[in-house]
Amino acid sequence: MSSFEKVRVAAVQATPVVLDAEASVAKAVALLGEAAAAGARLAVLPECFVPLYPSNAWAKGVASFGGWDELWERLWANAVDVPGPLVDELVAACRRHGVWCSIGINERESERPGTLYNTMLVLGPDGLALRHRKLMPTMQERLFHGVGAGDDLDVVDSPLGRVGGLICWENRMPLARWKLYRRGVQIWLAPNADDSDGWLASMRHIAIESGAFVVSVPQFIPAAAFPDDFPVPLPAGKAVFGDGGAAIVEPTWGEVIAGPLRGEEGMVIADCDLREGLHAKRWFDVAGHYSRLDVLAPAAPAERPPSPARPGDADDGRAAEHEREHPPR
């Protein structure tokens, strides 16, 4: 049975140690300790935190065949195996601090060097609870990341409640959201790289639509975070490549209850009473009394319940049978 805890959640707006997986994980471990010290039971870090998000702000030239091999090689060398030692470090930190964590990584498959994936992990004191690969990389991301298979669209039935979510612009995909709505998500994770006002509007909508608390964690990426030996040129005169905007949104009226935090690293924290999600679904349950699967085509035909009988259905059946027995001449 679903529980309705009061969960303190931290949206951790942090800058990775660019192109250094071990240092980025060490920073994440320290941040988990800070979040736990503030009383958080769940800490959410940004998309591709380990070791870098390939932003359109500096990666527009990646479509070229030449000039990007060194970046690709260093990104792969600092990507994460799942399972693997860096994941083990994060799990050990969750166990040590008694917290759950969601973190975005560039995922590799060391036994088959090649494609990387934009992956969200959900980790708890007992280990890896969920690995989700982004279904559809956006624009230039497609030249860095493969597409996810979609067999990992699920929620974690954790002691904190039912936790799940989508990565960045996956949150714009109605049928992807629908699949998680059907799983009864209570805390919605939205690691991303979008610092626009429109993004925050989407987060407020999803909170209302899902009946879940939404934890949105963009990135804060100043130009100063890039090492001197970064292998491709950065646009001149640009001081920030991601301004942040971390926020937590409640599910009844879509109010922003923490954040948005912009222009700096930091964390925003909120106490999320999951009973509020239950209250919201008394009014509007997108996967329940407001779904109307008998009318609206669902994501999968197997999810559609039988349509109720309509006036005249029985008469129509008798007429069809009579016509078969007595065809017109």
Q: Tally the helices.
A: 7
Please state roughly what percent of the residues sit in beta strands, choosing from under 5%, 5-15%, 15-25%, 25-35%, 35-45% or over 45%: 25-35%
- Major beta sheet summary: 7 strands, mixed
The mean pLDDT is: 91
Number of domains: 1
Topology-level CATH name: Nitrilase/N-carbamoyl-D-aminoacid amidohydrolase
Assembly of the depicted chains? single chain
C-alpha-based Rg, rounded: 23 Å
| CATH class term | Alpha Beta
How many distinct beta strands? Answer: 14
Q: Helix/strand-derived class?
A: alpha/beta
Kindly report the name of the CATH homologous superfamily: Carbon-nitrogen hydrolase
User: What characteristic shape results from the CA principal axes?
Assistant: globular
CATH architect. name = 4-Layer Sandwich
Q: Which stretches are low in confidence, meaning pLDDT under 50 for 5 or more residues running?
A: none
Question: Which descriptors apply to this entry?
Answer:
329 residues, alpha/beta, Nitrilase/N-carbamoyl-D-aminoacid amidohydrolase, 7-stranded mixed beta sheet, 7 helices, 25% helix, 25% strand, globular
